[in-house]
Amino acid sequence: MKTLIFLAILPLMSVLLLSSTCHKSESIKAPLEHKNDICKILHYASLAGSSHNSQPWKVEVFPNDSIVVFADASRLLKVVDPKGIELFISVGAFTENLDIAANSLGYKTEITLHDTGINSAGSVASVKLVKTSLPQKPENLKELELRTTLRIPFDTMEIKNIDRGKLVSIAPENIILVPSNSPEGRFIAKKELEAYTIQAWQKDAQDELASWMRFSNKDVNSKRDGLTPAGIGIKGIGGFVVRNFMKPEDSKKESFVKSGVEKTQKQVENCGGWIIISTEKEDASEWINVGRIYERINIQCRSLNLGFHPMNQIIEVQPIYQEVNDKMVSGRKIRFVARIGYVNEYPAPVSKRRPVESFTIFR
Ligand SMILES: Cc1cc2nc3c(=O)[nH]c(=O)nc-3n(C[C@H](O)[C@H](O)[C@H](O)COP(=O)(O)O)c2cc1C
How far is the CA of 157 from the centre of ligand 1 (A)? Predict the structure, then answer.
């Protein structure tokens, strides 16, 4: 019932959100013919997932309907992602949503990826929009609204062949789907838990995570990024206590860390498969591409009723990463790992996004 009510009011919420994000911006000055469409496209782009919900993107929009996408290095997770690989993956997910949203509104897109480094002020991608008379596809926008990370336990049933085919065909060279009940699946589950546990007790990673925790309603609604109690699945009385009586610093306390490890054990034991995305080459445009693939898989999983949960600690904790990489892929680099599995009910997305004007400059 709750889901039905949510689905019924979702279009209204989007309209309200868009009208409040796009029109009050001081930075939107250029006399763009398609300004409203571009605001809408950028809002949908920002619904992409990102590591710690850091939303590390910036864009510049030019009067010829060109959008230049940048990585926002000030949002880099220096401890767990020192090379900015996950930052570029997040910007890639944003670029994928941008592409889907533009196509849904009848624009053809030409996307050029630039091989830029994390410390360069250079752009990551340029997107040229060309308005066409192609029919609009609002159902694709709806898919972007419904995509979410799910951290609940999933069914352990094996992923059906037909669904496996749909997921792997997104990028057959980059994607491996490992059944959770196979020896490799059990190996990944074990290593995920080990990696999570190591990182959960690591002081500098704890500090970094705490800096992205948004516990109070005030913080959640003013910052509109980071990890919220609802986002990390702390609901009911627990959610009430965290929202009202805890500070982000409390996430470093032993009891909080231990409950995270217990939760992770349940998560790794309750899934139907593991998605691994790997690349052959190592540069920013490859990582952007991984982000585009990740976003498409997450969207596809939502429509197949498959929960999708990125678990990238396995690639952030170096000794574990080496071991897993050597065993699972040869001559390639694993860049993204997620557990997937069927769910009975798909909860609505809860994580916040910053308004379009906070990351956009209209030239
Ligand atoms: C590169 C990348 C790495 C991520 N790693 C993790 C992770 O290790 N654990 C986790 O629970 N979520 C992870 N996430 C999911 C993000 O936390 C999530 O996308 C963000 O909080 C926004 O929530 P949403 O996906 O529901 O919109 C990752 C996402 C990305 C793009």
Answer: 23
